[in-house]
Amino acid sequence: MIQRHTPRSHTKGMGRNGRVRQTVRLRGGRASRRVASAVTWAEAERVLVGGVNSPVRAFRHIGGSALVLKEGHGPYVIDADGRRFVDFIMGWGALLLGHDYSSVIHALQSRMKRGVLLGLTHQAEVELAQRIVDAVPSVEQVRFTVSGSEACMTAGRLARACTRRSKILTFEGCYHGHGDTLMVGNTAGLPGAFSEATVSVPFNDREALERVMVRHGDEFACVIIEPVAANMGVVIPEPGYLARLRTLTSRHGVLLIFDEVVTGFRVACGGAQALFNVSPDLTVFGKIIGGGLPIGALGGPRRIMQRLAPVGDVYHGGTFAGHPLSMAAGLATLRELQTNPPYERLERLGEHLQDGLIDVSQRAGLPVQINRVGSMLTLFFSEIPIHTLAHVKAAHRDRFAQWARALLARGILVPPSPYEAMFLSTVHTETHIEQFLRSARQALQHIKTRVSAS
After folding, report:
1. Distance CA 379, CA 399 (A)
2. 241 is catalytic
3. What is the pLDDT of residues 201-218, one digit of tens each?
């Protein structure tokens, strides 16, 4: 439960160097447990753009005050004021083992005692790459990067070199990082020429896919897709969609890239490609393979990967690629996942949460759609099933905002955006799911009351 404290008086002003100064008096003279977040957020807005380093953290999709966090333990996060929340963001999917997992922490501590940056190849890079190769049959060699964005950019460059073509096909609602050619239509600041190199079609629209491949199939270097979309909320590929995509890309000599930054080692040890039995030419990884530290990776068959320098003519490099701390955390994480696979239990937890949310929404008389694959899911306030970005945009975002804020007030943290996924971890239990469902029931009743009043 969130502890509430009511201040008797609250004054604030500017201290030295423009910093916010706040003075609060409470019963018994105790300092407010809500003030630290306000002070830090005011500081953040002064020195960080919008107070954040990634836009979704600003809570602008749902309104209210953005959280300022200071700690994470197991399935919980604690904010700057000491309030504890059950976390269903889990580092945007990176923390499959939860916060401060003991073997991950031990691996990091051990690595730090032996140096945090070595600058040359080290054993942990080899071991982590081997574990990825062993788990994902389509991957024979790996190149580590610092982020998923960097890995996607490198994959596109590699595909162009291999095919000697320039165009890329993407899908509306899928996110592959902030690389220029992969952000066409989604940001300002891009030269017009980039729009000529990138074509986008709706996710799950088979007719649109067929048309664009007939028209441009022989011009595409690659097709890149999230096999399970996770950046417009969870949107699941319709039966046969990925298999048809594989057939069309093979027919036209186009490299198929699966962006498994989110799904890799989350929906299955072999990723979504194992779950749907479709093998891409290249796979991009991130998040879980770093155990919560910055990481990305590109993997594929030797015949393609050998085009990368120093063997081939496609350059990629970086001081922090294969960083020892990321390798240590990732290796500890994959060892645990491969030694004690959690996927059956996570499937049961996910099913419990999904079924429970459907039940409480029906009782509240509010139509919702819940898209789930394993331990990742999204609740959409919509009367129709969600299969495309157009469906996502047609959902009631105002209801989602009310829901997310009401859950937060009850100690449940879900993504502060209707376009993100909720994530379960191995440290969530049935008790946490029941707590979520109790809070969701109250939140939905609150929304229903407001809907009825309007």
Report:
1. 11
2. no
3. 999 999 999 999 999 999
Other CB atoms within a 10 A radius of the CB of residue 48 amount to 13
Q: pTM for the complete prediction?
A: 0.90
**Cis peptide upstream of residue 324 (ω within 30 degrees of 0):** no
335-368: per-residue pLDDT in tens? 999 999 999 999 999 999 999 999 999 999 999 9
The answer to whether 33 touches 82, Cβ cutoff 8 Å, is: yes
Cα three-residue angle 147-148-153, rounded to 5 degrees: 100
399/407 Cα distance (integer angstroms)? 12
- What's the fold here for domain 102-339? Aspartate Aminotransferase; domain 2 (3.40.640)
Query: Which amino acid belongs to residue 42?
Result: A
Q: Which fold would CATH assign to domain 46-96+342-453?
A: Aspartate Aminotransferase, domain 1 (3.90.1150)
Among 81, 87, 175, 241, the active-site one is 175
Q: Could you tell me the residue ranges of all domains in the chain?
A: 46-96+342-453, 102-339
* Active-site choice (259, 281, 343, 419): 259
Question: Any catalytic annotation for residue 259?
Answer: yes
Residue 163 DSSP class: H
pLDDT digits (tens, 9 = 90+) for 141-166: 999 999 999 999 999 999 999 999 99
